[in-house]
Amino acid sequence: MRTPPGVAAVLAVLLIVLAASAASAASAAPQDPDLPALVSRVAGACVIVGGGSGVLVSADGLVLTCAHVVGVTAGLPVMIRGVSHPARVLGTDPLGDVALLRIEGAAGLPCLSLGDSDALRVGQRVLALGNPFGYSERDWQPTVTLGVVSALHRFQGGYSDAIQTDAPINPGNSGGPLLDLAGDVVGINGRVAVRFGDRVNTGVGYAIPSNQLRRFLPLLEEAEGGSVEHALLEGVRVEAGDDGGSGAQVESVLPGSVAAEAGFRSGDRIVAVESLPVPNGNRFHGILGTFTPGSRLRFAVRRGLEEEEEEEEEEE
Fold it and tell me: Which residue blocks in 222-280 are alpha helix, DSSP H?
């Protein structure tokens, strides 16, 4: 059966429109990065520290790792591509599980920048680099795993504001970098959730966020081998737990304390710290744990039926 010329013209136009639409959709779709090229670019900054991992964050040899990786050791070697470099511990943060080392006499080393962990979104893909089970000591190349950000702001033991990821990490990954797909460090890997006593990955790992690391770096550099503390709002007792979702309930305020002088009262509900929402007591303590002592922070407080009011307070 012969197709009328008019119908053929309509079909041709339709095909052209469909082709144009497909091309437009393809151009609008996000392009995946070249992961092998990205890994090649960042791998040199991932180092081996003891039986764990670390990441170079300056060309003159500053290395971030976990406090539990270095333990109480004052100095230890850092392995870069199979070459041992003497390093000393500048400072540790036992509560936050962070340690800062310096490789002696270093210059021109490959290093990575700290990214913005506050910009992370659940579902965003991330890379974990490190030395699981000592495997990287066979060829001096870091193991690379790919996953997503499973959750944010986890209050997990000493990790007050952890990034949860399903990127497989295992013993030996501790201290290694968690990277976004731009190649920036958005955290350092530290803990793995385990089951039945097996120290293997269950799909739940935790990383210390980069913005917390950035705030503590100056203190760690100046610690002279000692440890650093975290911010604490002195004189206020906040209802513990995850329940509620509408703020952290102030249970009591110690007369004459920093909290009392700032104007906090029993019954107040803290709903934000530095514009960060506070759904419950755990999140309140989690936010404080990302700041250093002496920080001046702004709190949003709901009192009775009144609108939120802001309080400014110095952390001790």
Answer: 258-262
